[in-house]
Design brief:
InterPro entries: DUF4191. The chain is an alpha+beta fold. The chain has 7 helices and 4 strands. The protein folds into 2 domains: 75 residues, no CATH class; 117 residues, no CATH class.
């Protein structure tokens, strides 16, 4: 027990420092965060105190109100901090990949499975909903990139549903802050073993392409592919 106490004491300052840093970052995008949190705490505590005086137990209801005021403020702070973070990430390259990494358990994500010279990019996530291709970039350019990757998935895993999502704020696009919710709401059609099998097939394809020996320089004239070999 004596060994665990110093570790716990060392962890607390770290948590407080992290909370303070999160608050500072949130306040840059949300100037009213302090007033909002204070209002939520005061109103919650005031309501319980009023109920406590009304029923004759102000101390008990006051303590309960204080705890719930802290909890309510923490919930509001978390949501506004998340909103501020998404606002800062919006439009930044790789923002969708960062969200995909935090979708939740049961999802395997592979960032940048397709990209063009303009840095429009397509990420891939595999879960019980099937394969989800998430594109970010210029809508006019990335649509063709997304379509090509979707056709590729249809050839490799024809028995697995493939969904496509274009991240953005325009018509037919999904806002970055709604990306996780959109993916979680997709219907689950695969079992755990099917998800594993799909990941294995996609991983094997990636390993095959990366380990395929390629001749240096132009292919000699008259050279033929060996029997059993397939060009991809």
């Amino acid at each position: 027990m004596a060994r665990k106490e110093p570790a716990a004491d060392a962890a607390n300052p770290g948590r407080l420092k992290q909370i303070a840093l999160t608050y500072k970052m949130t306040r840059k995008a949300d100037k009213k965060i302090g007033l909002v949190l204070a209002a939520v705490g005061i109103v919650t505590l005031g309501v319980f105190l009023a109920i406590g005086f009304w029923i004759g137990h102000p101390i008990y209801l006051g303590i309960l109100g204080l705890l719930l005021a802290f909890l309510a403020s923490a919930i509001v702070f978390g949501r506004r901090a998340e909103r501020a973070a998404f606002g800062q990430m919006e439009g930044q390259p790789g923002a969708a990949a960062a969200v995909l990494d935090n979708v939740g358990r049961g999802w395997t994500t592979t960032p940048a499975v397709a990209m063009n010279r303009s840095q429009d990019v397509v990420h891939r996530a595999v879960g019980k909903a099937g394969i989800v291709l998430v594109a970010e970039g210029n809508p006019n350019r990335v649509k063709s990139l997304l379509a090509a990757e979707k056709r590729k998935m249809a050839r490799i895993v024809a028995d697995v549903p493939v969904h496509d999502i274009l991240v953005g704020t325009g018509e037919g696009q999904v806002e970055l802050k709604k990306l996780r919710t959109t993916m979680v709401k997709l219907p689950r059609v695969l079992t755990g073993p099917q998800v594993t099998a799909t990941n294995d097939r996609l991983r094997a394809l990636g390993d095959l392409m990366s380990n395929m020996p390629l001749p240096k320089g132009p292919m000699p004239k008259g050279m033929r592919m060996p029997r059993g070999g397939k060009m991809r």
